[in-house]
């Protein structure tokens, strides 16, 4: 399956835009890297079957993906990073290495789901999963031995890094891919390059509030 086939199912905020149409403007190394992210996802090598199920459900809730229209194979992409021990290059000094924390935090997520709903996190329905995650994020004190903000940071960093590195996500947000070597010439607010497409829903973008809002 190509990125175009995946992203054709996405509501067209940027109608007719497909980032891989820009591939001829990238150098060969860039084309190779980007195209390697589409098609069959890599085999799972780090997570076991239980962890894979929990991670997939977690990523689906964090990114609002669903099995019937899942555009980006986030679990496989995160798994490949962890199998290769490709982290962000740092971790909180109060936490173990990322690959260890992923295993223990997914086990904790399943334990939380069993305690509240009597089943694994992946088996909970979407509303139950969202409720559990909201409780983890917004609760008081530590959560099952983890600093809440820091475990939330780990989950969301890996989820967003994977999702927004995939061409299907670029199609969804109208991102034309790497600027090198072509570059950009039309700089400024609301300025577009000839290869960019106008957003059909510009008023639907979230607005940044003040620190106290």
Question: What is the secondary structure topology, with strand pairs?
Answer:
Layout: H1 3-7, H2 28-35, H3 49-63, H4 74-83, H5 98-117, H6 126-138, H7 148-163, H8 167-173
Helix pairs in contact: 3-7, 4-7
The biggest beta sheet is recorded as: none
How large is the share of residues in beta strands?
under 5%
**Shape, per Cα inertia axes:** elongated
Helix content: 40-55%
Ends apart, CA distance between termini: 43 Å
Low-confidence stretches: 1-8, 206-213
Given the helix and strand composition, which structural class is it? mainly alpha
Whole-number mean pLDDT: 88
Total separate domains: 2
- Written as H for each helix and E for each strand, in order along the chain, the element string is HHHHHHHH
Rg measurement, Å? 19 Å
Number of strands: 0
Explain how this protein is built:
The chain has 213 residues and is mainly α. It folds into two domains: 3-38 and 168-200, no CATH class; 49-163, no CATH class. Helix content is 44%, strand content 0%. It has eight helices and no strands. Helix 3 packs across helix 7 and helix 4 crosses helix 7.
Describe this structure in a few short sentences.
With 213 residues, this protein is mainly alpha-helical. The chain folds into two domains: 3-38 and 168-200, no CATH class; 49-163, no CATH class.
């Amino acid at each position: 399956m190509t990125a175009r086939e995946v992203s054709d199912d996405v509501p067209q905020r940027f109608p007719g835009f497909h980032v891989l149409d820009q591939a001829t403007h990238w150098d060969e190394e860039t084309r190779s890297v980007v195209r390697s992210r589409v098609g069959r996802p890599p085999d799972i090598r780090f997570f076991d079957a239980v962890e894979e199920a929990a991670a997939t459900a977690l990523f689906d809730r964090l990114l609002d993906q669903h099995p019937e229209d899942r555009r980006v194979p986030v679990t496989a992409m995160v798994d490949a990073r962890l199998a290769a021990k490709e982290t962000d290059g740092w971790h909180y000094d109060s936490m173990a290495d990322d690959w260890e924390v992923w295993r223990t935090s997914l086990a904790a997520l399943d334990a939380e789901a069993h305690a509240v709903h009597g089943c694994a996190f992946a088996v909970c329905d979407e509303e139950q999963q969202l409720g559990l995650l909201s409780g983890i994020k917004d609760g008081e004190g530590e959560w099952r031995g983890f600093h809440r903000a820091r475990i939330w940071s780990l989950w969301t960093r890996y989820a967003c890094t994977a999702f927004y590195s995939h061409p299907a996500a670029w199609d969804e947000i109208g991102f034309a891919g790497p600027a090198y070597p072509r570059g950009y010439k039309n700089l400024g607010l609301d300025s577009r390059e000839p290869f960019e497409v106008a957003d059909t829903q510009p008023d639907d973008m979230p607005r940044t509030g003040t620190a106290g809002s």
